[in-house]
């Protein structure tokens, strides 16, 4: 049994901790005591059905702590899964949390292999190794959906490790050991290639979202059927009938920041497409906000802030951009979000009574259809043409 520490009890960290704790001893470290207490009580602090089930029903070798020494001192591997938010002032991921964890680890453990799961810029791992004189730092990108993170770890599309060393092979083996899928493709690359794989994969997904959103904008402008066009286009097997449902824009924690980071990595490279993907997201929100405002609503209601069904993540949700644009036009906005603490969000009133919310809103914007809104379907504004995703 291998001793593993995981730093960060968010979607990425907790899903990896649960995956690895099926066969190994895992200590999950976080600075937030509530998250630690929750994990130790067998309760998931994040909305993820598989994590909730595994914590409740599976015999995991998992415990959580706020004590760095306790977490890192005896670890063979330390998985770093702390937030790396994009800093628009510097056009760069804020990697200070990653560096802080690595410093904490090395103060008590000089032998552990450190595996960064946090998303980082291309070239960062190599720079960090050289700066610290530490070759036992690896990068292994994650490809997880919020709300289905453990499922995606149990059924991985691929495992990528940015090194071809015994430790890299051992870590990949630990991930495969915990997976349900038997035939997982495993790729060992250089660190820069692994970092680029993550950013280019997410930017491609953002491009696909932007493409079908622009198709929808065209159809709306010309009074033709978005769904019929998408279905006809998707019958080409090279395109397919997946990841094609229009929305208010790509959102969530990963796609907005990863596309901007990749764009900054392109600063000295001739390009048009990456810039267009980033710009297209703003253009889509401008277009939809104009369309909503043209209906002259007295009050606009926002039904849920989470980026998608089954997620409790409000960060960078696409509807926020619509809200900001409506507010700039002087249109009052109220929000139905019963899970959000406090009485306001982004200075907008939270209405927790769904009946009152429906009565007060002239238009209700919802990124996806919801059964709760069936009785006021005539008020609902959504670009969800397939009722999924």
TrEMBL record:
PANTHER family xref list: UDP-GLUCOSE 6-DEHYDROGENASE (PTHR43750:SF2), UDP-GLUCOSE 6-DEHYDROGENASE TUAD (PTHR43750)
Single annotated GO MF: UDP-glucose 6-dehydrogenase activity
UDP-glucose/GDP-mannose dehydrogenase C-terminal domain location: 301-388
UniProt-annotated binding residues for NAD(+): 30, 35, 84, 119, 146, 257, 315
Enzyme Commission numbers on file: 1.1.1.22
Gene Ontology annotations of biological process type: polysaccharide biosynthetic process
Binding residue positions for substrate: 143-146, 198, 243-247, 251, 307-308, 389
SMART domains: UDPG_MGDP_dh_C
Pfam families with a match to the protein in the record: UDPG_MGDP_dh, UDPG_MGDP_dh_C, UDPG_MGDP_dh_N
Active site residues according to the UniProt entry: 254 (nucleophile)
Key words of the record: NAD, Oxidoreductase
Reactions catalysed according to its record: UDP-alpha-D-glucose + 2 NAD(+) + H2O = UDP-alpha-D-glucuronate + 2 NADH + 3 H(+)
Keyword check for NAD: yes
Family classification: Belongs to the UDP-glucose/GDP-mannose dehydrogenase family.
Gene3D superfamilies: N-(1-d-carboxylethyl)-l-norvaline Dehydrogenase, domain 2, NAD(P)-binding Rossmann-like Domain
SUPFAM superfamilies from the UniProt entry: 6-phosphogluconate dehydrogenase C-terminal domain-like, NAD(P)-binding Rossmann-fold domains, UDP-glucose/GDP-mannose dehydrogenase C-terminal domain
Pathway annotation from the record: Nucleotide-sugar biosynthesis; UDP-alpha-D-glucuronate biosynthesis; UDP-alpha-D-glucuronate from UDP-alpha-D-glucose: step 1/1
Name of the protein: UDP-glucose 6-dehydrogenase
Organism: Shinella sumterensis
């Amino acid at each position: 049994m291998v001793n593993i520490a995981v730093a960060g009890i968010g979607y990425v960290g907790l899903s990896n901790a649960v995956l690895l704790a099926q066969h190994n001893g895992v200590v999950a470290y976080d600075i937030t005591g509530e998250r630690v207490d929750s994990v130790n009580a067998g309760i998931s602090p994040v909305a993820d059905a598989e994590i909730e089930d595994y914590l409740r029903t599976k015999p995991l070798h998992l415990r959580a702590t706020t004590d760095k020494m306790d977490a890192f001192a005896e670890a063979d591997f330390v998985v770093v899964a702390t937030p790396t938010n994009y800093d628009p002032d510097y056009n760069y991921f804020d990697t200070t949390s990653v560096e802080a964890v690595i410093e904490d680890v090395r103060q008590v453990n000089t032998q552990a292999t450190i595996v960064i799961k946090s998303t980082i810029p291309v070239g960062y791992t190599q720079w960090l190794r050289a700066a610290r004189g530490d070759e036992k730092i690896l990068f292994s990108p994650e490809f997880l959906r919020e709300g289905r993170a453990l499922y995606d770890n149990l059924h991985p599309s691929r495992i990528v490790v940015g090194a071809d060393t015994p430790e890299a092979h051992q870590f990949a083996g630990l991930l495969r050991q915990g997976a349900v899928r038997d035939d997982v493709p495993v790729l060992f690359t250089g660190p820069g290639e692994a970092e680029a794989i993550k950013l280019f994969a997410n930017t491609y997904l953002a491009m696909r979202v932007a493409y079908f959103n622009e198709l929808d904008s065209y159809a709306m402008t010309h009074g033709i059927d978005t769904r019929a066009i998408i279905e006809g286009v998707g019958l080409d097997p090279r395109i397919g009938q997946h990841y094609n449902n229009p929305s208010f824009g790509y959102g969530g924690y990963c796609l907005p920041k990863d596309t901007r980071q990749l764009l900054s990595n392109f600063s000295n490279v001739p390009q048009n497409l990456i810039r267009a993907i980033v710009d297209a997201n703003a253009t889509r929100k401008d277009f939809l906000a104009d369309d909503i405002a043209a209906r002259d609503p007295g009050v606009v209601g926002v039904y849920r802030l989470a980026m998608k069904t089954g997620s409790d993540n409000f960060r960078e949700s696409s509807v926020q951009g619509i809200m900001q644009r409506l507010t700039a036009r002087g249109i009052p906005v109220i929000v139905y979000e019963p899970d959000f603490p406090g009485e306001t969000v982004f200075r907008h009133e939270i209405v927790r009574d769904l009946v009152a919310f429906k009565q007060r809103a002239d238009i209700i914007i919802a990124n996806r259809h919801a059964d709760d809104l069936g009785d006021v379907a005539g008020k609902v504004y959504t670009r969800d043409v397939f009722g999924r995703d």
